[in-house]
Design goal:
Rossmann fold, two-stranded parallel sheet, 10 helices, 13 strands, 18% strand, globular, binds nicotinamide-adenine-dinucleotide, NAD(P)-bd_dom_sf
Length: 327
């Protein structure tokens, strides 16, 4: 097929990676996936799927055994607030993800690797700019002076810098996106690594009409959420841009409180629900994407309202609650 590329997707068994493999295949590319596991909820259309631990340099030797036009580095030790903010997983998160990124960059210098995409996170933004839930500031240039609210965010910031340093000093063609709360079907929905959209869908799907759902904190904390298909469009525009590297936000600017998110999901479900606020790990008070840079360079911003993605996600989570295939 003309314009067909050879792509490697690291983290291809995860939420975003498995959707990305599907998109790259639908565009006619040859795709190798690699992960510790196969996707949890459906088969993979990858041409080749390697089960391997990317902390091991020998696994990289094996998977970079041919030229790749594009490498997408999505593998990371991560999860929702219940995984990132308790403090219990900090050493694992920093050690495992940094090793994966170091291994890729070390070998990419020797092997024929074209463009490298690195998935950073909104978690790199300083805590002090996200204390007001009504007007958080997450424009790209506000990342410094740095003060992320988690070790997960510090590792992402370190790795961003490492990718940029390998670009400056060794000429690697890197692209960096900062994802803001990506959600959709076939993501974690229970078990501790799920994020707010899937967790809220599960809680609403499980409760009877008129029942009560528990929400961590007072629910006034704000976030924006980006549907998976929109995220992949942003990634594609960044990867196809001739010279803009980022880091650039890939997120939605439709900010809602967690209480509003519950109300939206309850409305989608056609249920009345009461909210009980309980103690739990929270993260920053407010966070929203700032898309000025992505509009300017990529001509990209989220195009659909939050409700569009939440309807699809709720439908899928409800099915899982009824008939769980994987957790
Ligand atoms: P995910 O946890 O579903 O996917 C990550 C995948 O990496 C998992 O399948 C995991 O098994 C794999 N992995 C972890 N350690 C590995 C190892 N040592 N060897 C091989 N594979 C390994 O997460 P996701 O939501 O798909 O996120 C993908 C990337 O985007 C991650 O780097 C994440 O930090 C970043 N990100 C995601 C979001 C979001 O909202 N989902 C937000 C910001 C950034």
């Amino acid at each position: 097929m003309p314009n067909s590329k050879v792509a490697l997707v690291c983290g291809a068994g995860g939420f975003i990676g498995s959707h990305l493999v599907r998109r790259l295949k639908s565009e006619g590319h040859w795709v190798r996936g690699v992960d510790l596991k196969y996707p949890d909820f459906s088969g993979t259309p990858a041409d080749d799927f390697v089960i391997g631990d990317l902390r091991e340099p020998t696994v990289w030797e094996r998977i970079l055994d041919r030229p790749f036009d594009e490498v997408y580095q999505l593998a990371a030790d991560m999860g929702g607030a219940g995984y990132i903010f308790t403090g219990d997983n900090d050493a694992h998160i920093m050690h495992n993800s940094a090793l994966i990124n170091l291994n890729l960059l070390t070998l990419a210098r020797e092997r024929r690797v074209g463009r490298i995409f690195y998935s950073s996170s909104a978690c790199i933004y300083p805590k002090h700019n996200q204390e007001d839930p009504e007007s958080p500031n997450c424009a790209e240039h506000t990342a410094y002076p740095a003060n992320p609210d988690s070790e997960y965010g510090w590792e992402k910031l370190f790795s961003e810098r490492m990718y940029l340093a390998f670009n400056r000093n060794h000429g690697l063609d890197v692209k960096i996106a900062r994802f803001h709360n990506i959600f959709g079907p076939e993501g974690p929905w229970t078990g501790g690594r799920e994020k707010a959209p899937a967790a809220v869908c599960r809680k609403v799907a499980e409760v009877k009409n008129g029942g009560t759902v528990e929400i961590w904190g007072d629910g006034a904390q704000t976030r924006s959420f980006l549907y998976i298909d929109e995220c992949l469009e942003g990634v594609s525009r960044l990867m196809n841009h001739p010279n803009f590297r980022g880091p650039v936000n890939i997120g939605s600017e439709e900010m809602v409180s967690i209480n509003q998110l519950v109300a939206l999901v309850a409305d989608i479900a056609g249920k009345r629900v009461h909210i009980k606020h309980v103690e739990g790990p929270l993260g920053v008070r407010g966070r929203n994407s700032d898309n000025e840079l992505s509009k300017r360079h990529l001509n990209w911003a989220a195009s659909k309202p939050l409700r569009y993605g939440m309807e699809r996600t709720y439908r899928w989570v409800k099915e899982q609650v009824k008939n769980p295939r994987a957790k």
